[in-house]
Design brief:
The chain is an alpha/beta fold and 385 residues long. The protein contains 15 helices and nine strands. It has three domains: 2-192; 231-284, no CATH class; 300-382, DNA polymerase, domain 1 (Orthogonal Bundle).
C-alpha cells in the first residue's frame, strides 16, 4: 500500500516495496545509499525466527521513513514533485507466486497463517516430496479460495500494492530482466553520490520456477485475474487458401494480446516470432497498436467527484482502483498530453454471465441505465456545476 511506501528524503526517493519482488535487496540498497542503515540494530534482532537477511524489514534497521509518517504537504510533494524519484519493481507473476509459495508454505516461514500451511501440505510420491505436485496443489487451493490466502500479503497481486494507476513512477523495473536491478542501483547511487554494491538477499532453494510449474498450474494462477497477472496472447481468427479444391498458398492467424503493464509491444512480437519459428513471419497489424504511455497522475478532484457521484446511488459502496485487461482510446489522448481517467460504471448480478465479446454479448439493462445518473452527477461535479 502507498502508506507503507519508504521515503529517503536525502536522495529524494520514494520506494514502494512488494513482497517477493526483490524487496529485501532494494530496501537494503536504498537504506545504505540514504545512509540510514543500522547494522548494530540488525545484529540485535537476529533470532531463530529472524535471519540476517530478514532484519532489513525492521524499521529500526533500514531507518527509512514511511509515507504515513509524513504530513499531507510532505506526501503531496513526494507524489507530485519532479524533484522526487518514485521507484517500484515488478516480477513475472508466476515466478513471484512460486517464490511466495516456496518461502511461506513449502519452507514454512515463521508467521505464515496456519490455514495456508494446512491447505498446502506436501504431496509425497514414493515417500519423497514432489515439489511440482505440491506447487500445483497450492495453485489449486488459491484458485479455489483466493480470499483464504489474501490474509498474507505475499499472495496478493502486485497491482494491489503498486497503485500504478495512481502514481507516476520514474523507475518501474522488471527484476527478471537482465541488468535492470544494476541499472537501478546505478541511478540511485548517482543521486546519493555513493558507490553501494547491490547485494542479493533471500535466494531461496535455488529452484527455478520454470522447473516446477506446467501449463495447468500457470493457468490456475492466471485464471484468478485474467490478463492481470501476465501478458496473454490468443489466436482469435484463422484464414488460409483461396479455393475449396486447392492447396493453400498461405495461412494467417490473428493473435490478440492483452499486454501486461511495462511490457513492450516489440518484446511480445519477438517472443511470438521465436515460438512460431523461422518459417512464419509475425508482424503487428497496421493500426492495431496503441501508443505506449505512462498512466495519468491521479487527481483528487476527479476521484472525489466519482466517489460523491457513486454515493448518490450506493452510499456505502467503496470506490477502489483496479487494473483492467481491456482497452480504450485513452492511450491516444495521453500520447497527446491529455490526462485520461477511466471509471467503471456497469454493475451486474453475481453469477450472471455477460459473455463479453462473445456472440451473445450482453449487459444487464438496469446496470446500464442505472449508471447514467452517476455519470451525469460526476461530470457536473468535475465541471463545477
Amino acid at each position: 500500500m502507498i502508506g507503507y511506501a519508504l521515503i529517503a528524503p536525502r536522495i529524494k526517493v520514494m520506494y514502494v516495496p512488494t513482497t517477493k519482488v526483490a524487496c529485501s535487496t532494494l530496501k537494503l540498497l536504498v537504506a545504505q545509499i540514504e545512509g540510514t542503515y543500522n547494522e548494530q540494530a540488525a545484529r540485535e534482532i537476529i533470532s531463530p525466527n529472524i535471519s540476517q537477511e530478514q532484519t532489513i524489514h525492521n524499521y529500526r534497521v533500514h531507518g527509512l521513513r514511511r509515507m504515513f509518517d509524513l504530513t499531507p504537504q510532505e506526501q503531496w510533494e513526494v507524489i507530485q514533485s519532479p524533484e522526487w524519484l518514485r521507484v517500484a519493481a515488478l516480477r513475472d507473476p508466476l515466478k513471484r507466486a512460486y517464490s511466495s509459495w516456496e518461502n511461506r508454505a513449502f519452507l514454512r516461514a515463521p508467521g505464515t497463517p496456519k490455514s495456508i500451511l494446512e491447505s498446502c501440505a506436501d504431496v509425497l510420491v514414493d515417500g519423497r516430496v514432489d515439489v511440482a505436485a505440491t506447487f500445483k496443489k497450492f495453485a489449486r487451493a488459491i484458485h479455489a479460495d483466493r480470499d483464504a490466502f489474501s490474509i498474507d500479503d505475499h499472495f496478493r497481486p502486485q497491482f494491489n500494492t503498486l497503485y500504478s494507476n495512481q502514481l507516476e513512477y520514474q523507475e518501474f523495473i522488471r527484476i527478471d530482466q537482465h541488468g535492470e536491478m544494476q541499472r537501478l542501483a546505478d541511478v540511485l547511487n548517482a543521486r546519493g553520490g555513493t558507490n553501494v554494491a547491490l547485494q542479493r538477499l533471500n535466494s531461496g532453494l535455488g529452484i527455478k520456477a520454470e522447473q516446477v510449474y506446467d501449463r495447468e498450474t500457470a493457468d490456475l494462477l492466471e485464471a484468478m485475474d485474467p490478463g492481470s497477472t501476465r501478458t496473454r496472447c490468443v489466436a482469435t481468427m484463422l484464414s488460409g487458401g483461396h479455393a475449396p479444391n486447392a492447396l493453400p498458398q498461405k495461412a494467417e492467424a490473428n493473435v490478440n494480446c492483452r499486454i501486461f503493464p511495462s511490457v513492450k509491444i516489440e518484446e511480445v512480437r519477438q517472443q511470438l516470432q521465436a515460438l512460431s519459428g523461422p518459417d512464419v513471419t509475425v508482424t503487428a497489424v497496421e493500426g492495431s497498436q496503441t501508443p505506449e504511455t505512462a498512466p495519468s497522475p491521479m487527481r483528487d478532484d476527479i476521484t472525489q467527484a466519482y466517489r460523491a457521484a457513486v454515493a448518490t446511488r450506493f452510499p456505502n459502496a467503496p470506490v477502489l482502483p483496479f487494473q483492467s485487461a481491456g482497452a480504450t482510446d485513452g492511450a491516444f489522448l495521453r500520447a497527446a498530453g491529455i490526462p485520461v481517467y477511466g471509471f467503471g460504471g456497469l454493475w451486474s448480478i453475481v453469477g450472471q454471465q455477460e459473455g463479453a465479446h462473445g456472440l451473445d454479448e450482453r449487459v444487464w439493462a438496469e446496470g446500464f441505465h442505472g449508471q447514467v445518473p452517476i455519470w451525469m452527477e460526476m461530470l457536473r461535479r468535475v465541471a463545477g456545476g
